[in-house]
Protein: LacI family transcriptional regulator
Amino acid sequence: MKKKVTLLDVAEAAGVSPSTVSRIVAGTARVSEKKRKQVEEAIAQLKYQPNLVAKGLVQGRTLSIGVLTQDIASPFYGSALLGVQEALRGTDYVPVFMDGHWQPEDEAVAIQRLVGRVDGLIIMGGHLEGDSLGALAESMPIITIGRTIPGFEQHSVLIDNYAGARNLVKYLFDLGHRRIAHIAGPHEHIDARERLRGYYDAHKEFGMDIDEKLIVHGDFQEASGSLAVATLLESRTMFTAIFAANDQMAYGARLALYRRGIRVPEEVSLVGFDDTRNSEYMMPPLTTVRQPMHELGLAATTALLNLLNDEEVVLEKITPQLVIRESASRAR
Structure:
């Protein structure tokens, strides 16, 4: 069995004391460039693997980043988590993922389990009270995606859901649609409310009255998209297009339309929001609004690392991009 290389081996090869090697590995040493280079060359030559737990103890850190998502299984959040992992690659930090399951109680438990075990938090969406998060942000670095914390607004990565939804509905109006159904997300979710507001204001901009029967609420899951279409059809309310508040509900809506023999887009146009990975492979490929979740995960993690290093954080609101595919066509 090959002998494990120790810190003492590195010290002997570099011609320095073990404590010097330890401080250089921990990043706390004040030594000459020559001595630092000797140690780094010895580490590379011997292929020494530093004990990151010990390094963290020296620095007073856990070298872990807590990430609270709402649904780890969701392709929407999965892209963001990949961005987190990419941003941490090459650093000493490892991510610790927790799931809030869209429930404030579960979010609170997840945060309780993370606090004290991680050096900082990335919180993606959620329903926890702003005051509670504000108090937590006073004690540890936090970056949020899709929501703000009172007093720490500059530490948020925000998407302009309102503008994205308004532009999407205006696109449907430009195609000649005047009866546009909306499968809204849960009202308690800020993203859903902003997308609904964009739907309303696009109608106002075109001087169109809104038929409230065309608005059905779902829960951002596929099954609720199917149920929403069933509700719309059973109400016998006429529509030529459906705007689902996220792609997952659009998938469910597409299935419900298919099972009733309603062709997309020949009879009903269908659009979504998020541009998750499967959307370009739906039949027909889904017109949607792209949220760059991978890039948002990268940006949030980079910002958190900057906070941990006492560096400035500058985050700007992002307007999502309309992605035109084949699921929407001119009204007939």
Remarks:
- The first helix runs from residue 7 to 14.
- The mean pLDDT is 88.
